[in-house]
Amino acid sequence: MKIIGTGSAIPSLSVTNDMLSVFLDTSDQWIRTRTGIVERRIISDENLKDLAVEAAKKALEEANMDGSQLDYIICSNVVNYYVTPSLSCLISGEINAACPCVDLNAACSGFVYGLDMAQAYQLAGKAKNILVICAEEPTRMCSWKDRNTAVLFGDGAAAVVVTEGDDFKASYITAKYRPEILYYQRALEDCPFVTYQQRGVPMYMNGKEVFKMAVNASIEGIERILKETGHTADQVDHYILHQANMRIIETIRNQLHQPVEKFPHNIERLGNTSSATIPILLDELNKGGKLKQGDTILLSGFGAGFTAGTCLFTWTMN
Ligand code: COA
Description:
With 318 residues, the protein is an alpha/beta fold.
């Protein structure tokens, strides 16, 4: 499998830490030092589907492909306006696609899960050209009265088009049963026969547990992938990690004894956009001319579940 196009789209509204401290008991200093976040983009006038369609169109354009040439659309998404139909189906209608579509929910690990799935479909001979897209609006999952969660998130979408090739060397995805450390419960319709009516619970997060799980899962995945592909940590040119907290990225970097330049980040500008962080960053690096042909790239994501995913590939676009 290889990537032949990338694209991303972010909302226009930038919300700074100072803007949050007007209605939350928090400060720019606390958020910056504990998370690395300075501002985030939040959906206001836009809607998530339109951002997703914009990202998809950009990726298709770079791949020099029309939506009708896609064999499959895999969309990583946790929440959007609809529960059904799927977001991938809504996107397909606006990019001229006529292929099967599926949404996947692996929380913030969704991009690596999506790539893993895409490669499996390719290897099974069931699809060649696949759109893997992540579109997320975590700002609609947290309570804006809860400083523990609301300060961390932003919205955004990003996509890649993949086709057959030899760039992808290995991927490793995991899920460990830890629902109690990070969850969001949607409201369900009342039913006269049910004894428990579910009104919905905003996102709950045990930050310290999530922090530990994130570092451990990421390190486990990275070490495993390096071993499987016969690479040393030094041979990786870019570690594109899920942008959840700058301190998580720094802890992982220190454990791998790697220089800061190898760990690009945009968390300071965009916050945690769930599964969209990795493909948004990949697109920024691609469009910014930061990726050279032959570079070795490692992606590592982690999120609610607790899920994690790591993969390694060679960059051959340019
Ligand atoms: N502003 C100001 N103070 C805050 C705050 C905020 N936004 N959020 C929490 N605090 C306070 C706490 O109430 C606590 O006060 P206390 O010492 O009086 O009890 C203090 O700051 C320290 O809180 P703590 O939770 O121990 O901070 P932390 O160093 O663990 O950082 C996180 C909190 C959430 C930033 C950090 O744990 C984290 O990033 N975890 C991972 C989260 C994540 O990655 N989530 C997404 C996964 S995909």
